[in-house]
Amino acid sequence: MSEQAARSRVARVVAGRSIYFDDEGFFWDPDDWSEDAALELARERGMGGLDEVQWRVIRFMRGWYAHNGRAPMNKDLKAGTGLSLLELERLFPDGIRLGARVLAGLPNPKTCLD
């Protein structure tokens, strides 16, 4: 059985819409993402909202994904945002993978191995 087939998904209402997430909290379908959903998920994580630098990172990640069909590697993220990895990790309480990537609506990296 493939990794994709082995994953489970759960529907939740976020920002007034029913959205599917995998068992680690990643969007099942990146097209379900919205800024309102990102804000609500950030608040659930105790962030209280998103500042302009966090939005810049999220928008860069989404743009990269839309253009390249995959999430940016750390070197691309650093170059595209002008931030160090330490700065990026500190911007999101759950770090880049479980923080920024989830809030940007990108797929779980475990499903991107094929």
List keywords for this structure.
114 residues; mainly alpha; Arc Repressor Mutant, subunit A; 2 strands; globular
The fraction of residues assigned to DSSP E strands is 5-15%
N-to-C SSE string, H for helix and E for strand: HEEHHHHH
Instruction: Indicate how many domains the architecture comprises.
Output: 1
Compute the CA-based radius of gyration.
14 Å
Strand order of the largest sheet: 1-2
* Quaternary structure type: single chain
What would you call the shape?
A: globular
CATH uppermost class: Mainly Alpha
Q: Please tell me the overall pLDDT.
A: 90
* Number of helices, counting only DSSP H or I runs of 4 residues or more: 6
Poorly predicted runs of 5 or more residues = 1-5
Question: What's the CATH topology label?
Answer: Arc Repressor Mutant, subunit A
End-to-end Cα distance: 13 Å
Give a short account of the largest sheet: 2 strands, antiparallel
Explained architecture:
The chain has about 110 residues and is mainly alpha-helical. It has a single domain (about 5-110), classed as Arc Repressor Mutant, subunit A. Helix content is about 50%, strand content about 10%. The chain contains six helices and two strands; from the N terminus they run αββααααα. Strand 1 and strand 2 (about 15-20) form a beta hairpin. Helix 5 (about 85-90) packs across helix 6. It is globular and about 35 Å long.
